[in-house]
Amino acid sequence: MQFIDARQALNNLLEDNQSIGGLQIKVTSRALKNEEAIGHPERGDFPLLRGKEVLLQAEIDGYKGQAFTSDPIAWQGDIKRLAALPVDRPGNYALMVAALNALARKLGLAGHTIHCRDQEPEQCAPQIASALREQYGLCRVGIVGYQPAIIDNCVREFGAEHVRVTDLDRDNVGSVRYGVEIWDGLRDTGRLIDFADVLLITGSILANGTAEDVLAAVEKPVYFYGTTCAALAHFNQFNRLCPLSR
User: Is 147 exposed, middle or buried (0-12, 13-18, 19+ CB in 10 A)?
Assistant: First the structure.
């Protein structure tokens, strides 16, 4: 599967519309607090609440875009300068993803760039599971990324024997959550792909440098979830399920 990354997408936009190069980007100099990012959901094991990742927010002319990262960087400047940053540091690439989401929202290319809050993650997850069931029937679902409400509802919809999950968090790997063992995202991606009829993938992989490793081996239906992937889903024509984001 071919993949247009955030730098390429930004450069493509700059080539098509040179006037946007000077637009100023303001990136929050701190991680959004839990209450700002996700509010008060019922479950306490969302990665945001456990401090494993933070939500970086970029703003362009009042339009906001977000990206999950474990390496938040404070930054301010214009789009042209941002697109020239080296991507050897994960935080720089996450900056590009968040800014691309804000820019795509400003240009009317992508929406739903702000994370859902409070009880919305619980309301979103059954909609995602139901959409997959409606499209594929009783199928085997491979989930990349630990999102508890989605895992729980996919198990309810398809049965634990039809669900497999990988994650990069060492605290999750090897544990059993909602009746499903969490596999190692570094070693078991191929195993997950072989198992699944359809893949449900966190948009975070589009900001943490692992996207190409996962997507290169996929020849099955793929759906991304989350706000991180808003713009990149558009530019890559990826399926996206994120019904209650803003």
Answer: buried
> How would residue 99 be classed by pLDDT, with cut points 50, 70 and 90?
very high
Cite the residue boundaries of each domain of the chain with CATH code 3.40.50.11590. 120-240
At the topology level of CATH, where does 120-240 sit? Rossmann fold (3.40.50)
8 Å CB contact between 5 and 95: no
Taken in order 193, 196, 198, 199, the sign of the CA dihedral is: negative
- CA–CA distance, 64 with 74 (Å, rounded to integer): 15
**Residue 43 banded pLDDT, cuts 50, 70, 90:** very low
Q: How many CB atoms lie within 10 A of CB 35?
A: 10
- Contact criterion met (CB below 8 Å) for 87 and 76: no
Could you tell me whether strands 222-225 and 239-240 are parallel, antiparallel, or unpaired per DSSP bridges? parallel
pLDDT at 40: 47
pLDDT at 101 over 70: yes
